[in-house]
Fold:
Amino acid sequence: MSEKILLVDDDIELVEMIRDYLKQEGYEVGTVHDGERGVREALSGDYAIAVLDVMMPGMSGINALRQIRSESSIPVIMLTARGDDSDRIHGLELGADDYVPKPCTPRELTARIRAILKRTGPAREAGALQAIKVGALEIWPEKRKAEWDGKSIELTSTEFNLLEVLARHAGQIVSKEELSRQGLGRPLMRFDRSIDVHVSSLRQKLAELPDGRSCIQTVIRKGYMLIKG
Structure:
């Protein structure tokens, strides 16, 4: 059975174009044209990923995302107006996994979808069944599960990806470019703040070290490092 994708956008012509392209790529696709139904479908458990347009009549994509995140960790990609940084950052802060500026091509959106699904699907790497432990942090890649001092941490799929990359390189600096490629599945774009927003969210979800520091340290002009504590 192929992975099923939910498209939520009131632009019917665009949705049909993207749907047809995704079907040619072998995906099942469900389409909805308003935020209220989009929330219901996203929470149905029938989809592997949802694509939400920010600007929709009635319930906006941002409000739909807020409702989805209150109940589910399904991966979500936001479609935003090109150049509208406020919507992008707000969506990422609410738990969106990535965003694609509109107008976009079906090929670009499909590449983003494929990258996220690849990282949220069953682990295939050798050694993926082994837990990764760094101080009080312990993560299980194959279960997409993380704990701090024995307590479960609720993470979005992208937050988990980034935390896994940092944990596998604990004590080493990981550049934003590398985090973007491994965590988001794409090169870091100019002026892109996605990694910074995701890392900020991770810091809020992870407990502080005994000395009060965050376990994720910023290394100016170089990247981020998960310290062993």
Remarks:
- Confidence is low (pLDDT under 50) at residues 123-127.
- The longest helix spans residues 106-120.
- The chain has eight helices and eleven strands.
